[in-house]
Amino acid sequence: MEDMYTEKVKEHFFHPRNVGEIKDADGFGKVGNPTCGDVMAIYIKVKDDKIIDIKFKTFGCTAAIATSSILTEMVKGKTLDEALKVTRDDVANELGGLPAIKMHCSNLAADALREAIKDFRNKQKK
Amino acid sequence: MRKVYMDYAATTPVDDEVLEEMRPFFQKYYGNASSIHSFGREAFDAIENARTQVGSLLFSDAEEVIFTSGGTESDNLAIKGITYLNKNKRNSKGYNIITSEIEHPAVLEACKHLEKQGFKIKFLPVDNYGLIKPSDLEDAISKDTFLVTIMFGNNEIGTIEPMKEIGEITKKHDIIFHTDAVQAVGKLDIDVKKLNIDLLSISSHKIYGPKGVGALYIKKGVKLEPLAHGGGHEKGFRSSTLNTPGIVGLGKACELGKKRMNKDIVYIKNLRDTLIKNVLKIEESYLNGHPEKRLVNNGHFRFTAIEGESLNLMLDEKGIAAATGSACSSKKLQASHVLLAIGLEPAEAHGSIRLSLGRTSSKEDVEYVSDVLPKIVQNLRNMSPLWNR
Fold it and tell me: Which of A104, B109, B126, B376 would you label with B279, given CA atoms 20 to 30 Å apart?
């Protein structure tokens, strides 16, 4: 079981970065469904169109937690447009790959981030 | 780091005495039990001794025991073996086979395979504890029913099914009764005669014997269509050169199982009950399965707002071996059929783990898990968007 995850996946799983919530977040995104076993929530703080802070909370398997953790590292400091370009595959590649069966269900972090950015931009419009 | 094995329901270590008993049968007494010469006779005698040992544990005659490659083969041979003798009942109106929703995949998948071939199967539902209702069984029986296969003790949640009642019903209706007793053997008294059991599957590696060997109890007079054709070994029920060391190991494991059963039960149940008491101190933790009608070594828990694979991997990092019913750890990405059958929501099923104990478990093992588990649950809950405390 454990061997199907790369060292990097395990490293992020056991020592996740940026866990938590941002109380006064500028954007919030949540995707997934407890039925499937994965729910990811992403909080972002934005300044000058850049992600200056990001936190996550994830209910899910090892892959779900590791992808959430590494995504926060990948996009922190990036502009929103740059962050939007990060795909699920990018996240998986950054982790040195994910087991094939985990690619769809547990690799939702990029989707959650997109929701958070959408939320931020919607708020800006108002 | 401390290593704690709490997955005895998955497999057990081979007992020293079992290993010693097996050892000479690899190089010293290596004859083929079917051979007429002295080498063959040595193997033959050892196998017949093992047959007596297995029979003794089940309160059956030695000649009612045949050896197989394990629990899965025993289940398949029993179920398909009976079914293929009843091909004329295919496409009937009533149910041909009655089983339960919470069977081990070896039974469930064998039944589903037969369903595709035109046999009608009833999968009995279970209550929130995992118990079938004998009256449901009675209601499902028709003149077309030729087999009831219901497990003795559940491999995930440990629930013990009402064997006595089932046996009375099948006897009354003159229907063959098979039970997968892989998890139950050695953990409680099983008297196949008193329980009216016609076919019973056992596996060696769950009772401190070697892997790759099992047995099927076949009540005298019960006929089966063999699955493996060949040299006609095991009265024609199962052709294949007999696995002498494995069978000798299974026999010894059964002998020890019988000899130590009462002591094992008291010792393991005591540890298990302490474990349950300690684990349930964790906020929003629950015991899956029946509080009393459960295998003495089984603890099965669920924790709100966390997922079992994560929990399992974190336990593993602390040296603790557990099992999970979470979809995320299964190859099919589906929540455990057993946990869904007892009425859990998929999210609840995902957050479940099994901690199973054995003869070689210790008080220190239980203390270590009781200390580590709450911290890991808390750690994962701190990360979970579903936990808002």
Answer: B126
What's the pTM value of the predicted model, to 2 decimals? 0.94
The answer to whether position B389 is within a domain reads no
**Average model confidence (pLDDT) across chain B:** 96
> What is the count of structural domains for chain A?
1
Residues of A in contact with B316 (CB under 8 A): 2
Name the minimum distance, in Å, from the CA of B365 to any CA of chain A.
22
| Chain B interface disruption, residue of A59, A98, A107, most B CBs within 10 A | A59
d(CA B92, CA B77): 22
B307–A37 C-beta distance less than 8 A: yes
Residue B233 and residue B173 share a domain: yes
What domain range includes position A109?
2-125
The question of ipTM being above 0.85 is answered as: yes
> In chain B, which residues have their Cβ closer than 8 Å to the Cβ of A109?
none
Q: pLDDT tens-digit profile of B186-214?
A: 999 999 999 999 999 999 999 999 999 99
Q: What is the CATH number of the domain that holds B327?
A: 3.90.1150.10
Identify the pLDDT of residue B332.
62
Residue B99 forms beta bridges with which residues?
B123
Question: In this structure, are B214 and B325 located in the same domain?
Answer: no
Query: Is B56 part of any domain?
Result: yes
Nearest CB neighbour to A62, from listed B306, B313, B333:
B313
Q: Does B215 lie in the same domain as B285?
A: no
B385 residue type, one letter? P
Q: What Å distances lie between residue B117 and B18, B83, B90, B103, B114, CA to CA?
A: 41, 11, 8, 20, 5
State which residues form the domain around B80: 16-257
Query: What is the C-alpha to C-alpha distance for residues B376 and A14, in angstroms, rounded to an integer?
Result: 11
Check whether residue B239 and residue B283 sit in a common domain: no
A61 assigned to active site? no
* Per-residue pLDDT tens over the stretch B144-177: 999 999 999 999 999 999 999 999 999 999 999 9
Question: Structural domain tally of chain B?
Answer: 2
